[in-house]
Amino acid sequence: MKNLNRRDFFKTAALGATIATLGASSVKGAEKILSENRIGILVDTDVCVGCRHCEWACRTAHNLPTPDLETYSDNSVFIEYRRPDATALTVVNEFENDNNSLLPIYVKTQCMHCERPACVSACIVGALTKGEDGSVIWDTNKCIGCRYCMVACQFQIPTYDYDRSIDPQIRKCDLCHDRRTSGKLPACVEICPNEALLFGKRSEVLRVAKNRIKRKSDVYIDHIYGEQEIGGTSWMYIAGKNFEKLKLPPLGNSPAPGISESIQHGIFAYFVPPVTLYALLGTMMWLTKRRNKDNDDNENVDVKKDGKGEKS
Ligand code: SF4
Ligand code: SF4
Ligand code: SF4
After folding, report:
1. Does a structural domain hold residue 60?
2. Could you tell me the residue range of the domain that residue 101 belongs to?
3. 150-181: burial string, b at 16+ Cβ within 10 Å, e else
């Protein structure tokens, strides 16, 4: 950004208005009426055995570097608490059971696909969108790498692929969008050997979760995490232990975009319209990204001119 020259500055100003308009439409997108048939996935932590096959399947389905499945039986990975990152869109962690004579509790973590996603309302170019089916997906062609979604997400889910020097990207669970459009189950759900992950219509998944809690009231606490939290989420959890102790944060029931909007109003107090601020910052990042891509393209052209590395 420090190399922004006069020509780039005028390009920035001209593009600012366009991006501001796109930003406004992305906020509207977050309020879209969801389909009654939208998806829900239940994580039943009483059934999960911590095999981490879901981690392996997720990486494989997204063409991420994937160690052999056998290596996932190494339990030393549970020594440290892990978060999803650019190489693993979902991870499983182990927690002690309150009753030490019982088996540990395993909790899978990924994007929650919030009903009112803060990441969508924070994205100034509409790169993140909420679908009628409840999934939150993103368009890498629109993403300018501003990382506002990372700041806005209360689950701290979107990660940034810093290892890609040219054109790094935001990454998170996409609810296996490509697999589902070809009629398949999400990879993690399909592989789970214990049916710890229940995929279906959100209302139906909720009904099953309530039944399980009622039937085994000595096992589960009477709470479905994600039914109401921050306005509801597509992924939901049942467990025998307070969710905060399983690192599922106590967030209240107010949708998170309302909180982001309050922050934006705070910026107004300094007489800087936030959309303008975001638009200018975002446009500068877009130009930087574009310039990096142009440099990369030029390098590719040079290689071809030399006759080296050309594909036959
Ligand atoms: S968990 Fe975070 S990244 Fe996922 S939909 Fe919600 S706000 Fe967006
Ligand atoms: S739904 Fe797909 S992208 Fe999301 S955690 Fe499961 S396998 Fe990964
Ligand atoms: S594959 Fe199923 S049982 Fe295994 S860790 Fe994942 S959710 Fe748990």
Report:
1. yes
2. 39-113+175-254
3. bebbbbebbbbeeeeeeebebbbbbbbeebbe
